[in-house]
Structures are given as C-alpha cells and as structure tokens.
Amino acid sequence: MKDEDELFFIDEDVEEQTALRVQAAWKLLIVDDEPAIHNVTRLALEDFVYNDKQLQIFNAYSAAEAKTLIIQHPDIAVILLDVVMEHDQAGLELVKYIRQELHNPFVRIILRTGQPGQAPEREVILNYDINDYKEKTELTAKKLFTSLVAALRTYNDLIIINRYRLGLEKVIDSTASLFKQKSLEKFITGLLEQLLSILNLNGSSFYSHSSASVDYTDTHHELDHHIVVAGTGYYEDKVNQNVKDVVDGLTFEKITQAEHNHQTLYFDTECVIHFKYMTQYESFVYLKGFTHLDELDKHLIERFCNNVTIAYEKLLSESIFAQH
Fold it and tell me: How far apart are CA 232 and CA 236, in angstroms?
C-alpha cells in the first residue's frame, strides 16, 4: 500500500496506530458498485482537508454493505451514493432506510448517477431526502471538492445545533430536579452528576466550599479551610477531607488560581468552575478526565451554573441558618 492511500483504507493492522488521526477525521462513505468510481474518487480527494480535518473514507459496493457500515459508524458525515446497484432503485431505497428506519437526519447524502433517465433529478429531489444530485459525468474533481465542503459545513452545523439542543434539554431537566432537593448534600451530588451528564464525561469531579467562615480579603487563607463536600470517581471517597490533602501540588495551584481570581479556568484535561454567592461563601467544582471542552461545552457549563446558583444559594443559606 502506498503512503498516500493510508488516508482512505484504514484496516485493523493500522487502526491502532492511526486512532488519534481518525478521531479527528470526517467520515465519508462511497457507495457504488463500480470499483473504478471508488478509485477515481479516492484520487480526487487524497489531499482533502476541511477545518483542519482530513477524510476517513469507507467503501461499500452495494446498498447492503452500506447499511452495515452506516450502522457501525453512525457518525458518517457524507455519503456519495450511486442509484443503480443491486437493482435500479437500490440507492433510493437506501436513502429511505437511512432517514426513515435509522432516523438519521444529519448525514449528508449526495446522489450520483450514471443513468439520470432512471432517476430524474426533479422527482428524486422532491420525493427523497437527499442533499445534492449529481451526474457522474459532471462531477469533476473541482465540483466534487465544492460539493463535499458544502455538505460537511452543513453537517457540522447540524451536529452543533443538535448538541446545543440536547445540552439545553439536560440543563432544563436537571435544574428542575435539583430544585426539588431539600438537603444541601443531595443538591451538590445532583449538581455534579448533571454536569457530567451534560458534558458526557466519565471522569472525576468534586465540589468544595469552606468549612469555616473566612475573610476573603485575607490573601493568605488560600484554600486552607476548603473541604470536599461531594465527589465522583476518584474523589467519591474523599468527602470531608481538605482539598489540599486530596489533590497534587499542580492541581492545587490551578484551583488556588481560580479561587484567587474569582473566575472559572479551563486547562487541557481539567477545569475549575468558580461559584460566587451573595453570602461570604465561595465555592468551586473541579472536573478532570476529559480530552477537550469546546466553546459549546463551556457555554453549557456557564448556562447550567447560572441556573443553579440561585437555588444553591437558597439551600446554602438555609443550611447555615439551621446550623446556628
């Protein structure tokens, strides 16, 4: 296999070595019963890059093979689909399968046909949920590039919008459930669980606030009085321990920085979410174990924290009042 072919043929022997690159690639599926079409398309797209991401190309030579690949890779972004394969309507039936049975509205489907008379463009566009229609003879390398960029741009926008929608639904649902909590400890545990759910994280986290009334104008107090109030993962059994005793020195410095600056800070695989209340208490949530938080994730964190701050402050005030 030539070096330039590695982008398009990811087999089991090289899968582990290319895992990181593949994760950052757009998935493209070519569905056509003519091997020459696969080869020509591969050559035309061998240097393709969009938004700093290359292509991982999958090949299917029938609609049946395509169904298997689509099920195995639900994050395929674009399908270049032939109409006539096993039979005259194989490609169009595959479109219905993707949209109606798999309920996948995100993948962009570019229909390619060498026999336009069997699938008239006007009829196909009106009756099938496809995103573009091209005759194979007109799809030059330049037009293929243009069509693919347009399809990927739309796909990316749809995925972002969907993530935003799902994230906001979680924010709304979780905020409602958190308001129902009567104990401070349960509220905090729910807060951590919902944050991890919103961000789809399986890492470790903990919530901390001061165990004593402290003077925040005193820059020497640092985090001496902060304890772990609730935790998940590694920190689940660290409750009631001092923060400085359960984290390493570098992490402690990051938390101190966020606390001292009264702001939320993001790092490579961790973040410190700072909470500022009307009372003299300040607190923070520490999340660790993710590979990347994009701007949408950060926006969801901020939205969620804004929604729960008022409720938490009420519970915190009631808890402090009850202790006195």
Answer: 4
